[in-house]
Each structure stands twice: as structure tokens, then as C-alpha cells.
Amino acid sequence: MRADDDWIISSLLEDLGALALARDRVSVHDLVETIGPRGFGPLLVLLAGMLILPTGMIPGVPNVVALFLILIGGRMMTGAQEIWVPDRLGRVSFSGHMLAVSVARAQRWALWLRPHLMPRLVFLVEGAVARRAIALILLLTGAVMTLVGLIPGFPFVLSLHVVVLGLALSSRDGLAALVGYTLILAEILFITAFFL
């Protein structure tokens, strides 16, 4: 993916792939350090991707992701630019091999997505109002995920709008943000239909 490593997601996937190959176990602190100053967008893509890809089947991963979404939403709501991770959460770890498999799959999707993402309608992803709206969505998503995260398939469904909003923030793409908002409505209908 070197031909496209000007895109923040491409460079992140390369770094995560290198991390996964270098370690048998990868901790949450390792992931946060690898993301570094790239911001909340790539972190959201990573978290949602962990639920969409094979890592989402690891027991406890949906709970960790839900907690992260609440932390990120809270940080964004206050205007912070980087994530703070409690030490206990930071020590949570999982298989480096599983991360490597997930990164390899994510890279294929990234190659397909890249031409479709670009800066446009940036007011939908930048500025205090837009960021607080996304922050509120993340807080609510994290709360809902803690309640229904043990139901098979629900973490996957709830991760769809998160990954799209993460891509929107990473690429300053307001149209992608609109797609993310539309997915929220579809997810609400799905969850409501399940319980009725």
C-alpha cells in the first residue's frame, strides 16, 4: 500500500501490520501508541474494524470497544484532540496473529475505499457543532453496546456507522458522515425489529 501511504488510514494499517508481526500479544496501550497523533478518526476506524473483522469474535472485545467509544465521545465533547486510556484498560491484550489477519483484510477494503473518500462538505465533520454531534453519537453507541453487546451480531451492526464516521473524520469527508448518519437510522430499525 505504499503507493497510497499519504492517506492516514493506509499508513496506520501498515504500522499496525508491523506491530502485529513483531509481537505475540498486542495491548491496548500498544494500539494507542501506534495510532499516535493521527487523531480520533483512525482510532474509530480501528475500533469498529475490530468488531467487523475476526477480532470481534474474541470474548470481551465488544466491551472494550464500547468503553473506548464512551471515552472518545467524552474527550471529543470537551474539545480534546487525543485519547486518554486508563492504565487497567491499556493492559488488556490480544493475539498479534489475530490482529495481523484483521489488518490484511482491512487493507483490501482500504484500497477499494480510498478513491471514494475526499475532502467535501467539511462543515459536517469539522467545527464544534459537528464534532459534538459525533461525540454524542459515540457516547450513545458505547452505552447501547454495553447493553446488547453480548447478543451475537449486534456489535457488528453497531460498528457500521462508527467505521464510516471514522473514515469521514480521517478524510474530512462530510458526505461519508451523512452515510454514517443514515446507517444509524438503519441500525435503530434493525435493533427495534429484533426486540419487538
UniProtKB/TrEMBL annotation:
**Is-annotated flag, keyword Chloroplast?**
no
Q: Which residues cross the membrane?
A: 43-72, 133-154, 174-195
Q: Which PANTHER family does this chain map to?
A: EXOPOLYSACCHARIDE SYNTHESIS PROTEIN (PTHR41795)
Instruction: Enumerate the InterPro entries for this protein.
Output: ExoD
Its name, as the record gives it, is Exopolysaccharide synthesis protein ExoD
Specify the species.
Rhodovulum steppense
User: Does the record carry Transmembrane as a key word?
Assistant: yes
**What are the entry keywords?**
Membrane, Transmembrane, Transmembrane helix
